[in-house]
Queue: 4 jobs
Job 1
Amino acid sequence: MSRLKKGFIGVIIVSMASIMAGCYLPKGVDDFSVMGNDTLSDLVRNSYGDGNLTPENSFGVSGVGRISKSKMELLANDLFAKQERNKIEATFVKNGGNCVEGVVQRDAVCSFVRKWKLKNIGAPFDTSNWSDPALKVNIKFRFDEHDRMQDLFLEIINVTECKEIRG
């Protein structure tokens, strides 16, 4: 048998083995269905990206590390562009967030927390030890002299509470 054929067969065997191994392991994926259908939850859902986007905050292929800060900033800019301060604050309060005065009179800091679940799409496994991913989003708004949104600065904080693994 030629070297080329042996190499090709080896690649097929390795590929099949890795596919089969994946069938026998649990695999967690983010499940946002437990979040509400509100404006702020949509910001989180629509900011989901491919791969680990915030390696300094988390690791792996699921959880807070998959939320793109830059994507969320763009979405928030579009959502709140030119809105008046009281309308922005009302949006946060209505959707389970809050706002406080900033250090500077023309600033306000609004925040919200969202939590979701990991769903097992792999082999049967007790997922009760899996932590539910959670994040806190702080958005510092800067308003112009007419109290309309001029700019925003966004921060994502991983607030996932790790569960104790039971034996």
Note: The first helix runs from residue 3 to 23.
Job 2
Amino acid sequence: MIAIAKSYNDIQQRYIAELRAALPEIRAWWSGVVAAEGYDAASLTWPTGISGHPRFLHVFRKFYFEIENLNRKNEHEFVEAAEKAPEEKWGVDDIGDSPRYAGHIDLLIDDIPSKAPDLVEVVNGFVFVPVGLDQDDEIT
């Protein structure tokens, strides 16, 4: 059975830690590729640069699926908003409480410049989400 993370913050913190742990080794690898082939040739083989390394893609996918699992778990749990006075509701459409949900890209890419500026180089290279759908529209 797959353990489901307790919070989106926990997922994001572990994602950042894993990217940071992999960064020195992969920076060394990228420097070696560029030194051996030149930047232009390396960029033809690795168009997303350092971000295209399979280990970074694996880390991204791992935490993408953790967020997906937590979103599915929270699908029927709703964030309860404080009750408003009747005067405040006048003229405002209210569709009710919203489910607890976090965007994968928000947590794994968009938040990184403010939460882990040292990883911007890596996440800026994720120009596509390395996740797809199978014939049954299930995420793979």
Note: Helices lie at 8-37, 39-45, 54-74, 86-89, 104-110, 112-115, 120-123.
Job 3
Amino acid sequence: MGAWNKKQPTKGQALFMGVIALLLATNIVVAVLVEGRPATVLFWIVLAMDLILVAMSLWLYRRAVKRPPTRG
């Protein structure tokens, strides 16, 4: 048995990263909009980075579907 090729993500890893990123985005939106917390620049920077994480997880999932990881 060989080890998994670590350069290629699995679908599960991509989905997990996407779910965590969406939970973080939900937390930020609730803090800013519902609780009346002042929308500081830091919140918007974190939200922008979080949206990048969501896009990256979608890209990784698409890549994992096209070429599943193989045993090396």
Note: Residues 15 and 57 are 7 Å apart (CA to CA).
Job 4
Amino acid sequence: MSAKYKVLQTDVRTGNVLKELPVTGIAFTHTLNAAGAATVGIPLFAPEADPESLSPGISGLAIVRDGAIVWAGILWALSADLAAGTLSLSASGYHSHYQGRYLVDGYTAKSKEQADIVKAWITAANADNGINTTTDEIRPTGNLRTTVWTRYELKNVAEAIEELADNIGGFVFRYVPYWIEAGKRIGHRLTLTKRGAATSPYVLTHRVNCDVTAVSYDSTALCTVAYATGADNGAGEKVVGIFENPALAARMPERVMIGSYSDVKETATLIDKAQATVNAGAVPVAIPELTLYPGQYSPLSFKPGDFTAVNVDAGYVALYDEFAVTECGTTVDANGNESIRLALASKELWSNANPS
């Protein structure tokens, strides 16, 4: 039996459900340490398509599967096809709100728990006409950070969170929607988990429970030496962090990667950035893409950042390894048929932010 989907229009600030929208198709993605996206088609002449109520930047959307919220976020764009009689709604996850919020007073933290830094940013944004992101389930990660941004830099909060997450000892962040009052009001909370902490119990086997549609092999990230350049030190020179991989250098000619982080002022942080680059380029990577067989999994069975085992035996492609889920995309057609695809990354590549 097919899962039953609904799309709800919400008030972004309060989470109140305003109405159910008629749909002609649904597609949504959960993306690793990013906002994710959703596209919903509705009839152009549906009375629910009220321009006084359904408005980009103001309205929210929530996608409900068998009574559970599987995606929620903010409507940012609409596109009307008058010939086809359809209206396409384009939304992004709640992280997109923080792309428009800035550290207008600057921010300084000296050896502070990174979870507390993120909570401070979210709390400040919530207090000033925000979207009521809950942080009650954020726990200490055990990693301390030093960050310095002046008010003149006007650092984007979303970008600041992403940069913390991408450091050695970083984290996976997700905005999880939930029912405050079933059918009437939704909330959402920000969660942080250590990279590599979540392992899926599933083994995905080609032509058993999934179709592996493609596997690409890539060596462009291979790196024996990495340099990370930062801000000007005040003497006309940039702060630099360096990290090397002598084991890889013994197997291949020197290959250098250089990253620029113009707002980083601490050498230790730049060394972490350089180490992340070296770790990410330690081995050539296999990158599979696959579609799950219908009816066996839900869109929440695989979360971005999870490690899951993939088994493929098809000529040159002989894989049995764990991969990190980088994206889970779901498409639902007008008849309610559901298709779920996963994009994956090498476990070694994703472990570039594991503590050294």
Note: The radius of gyration is 22 Å.
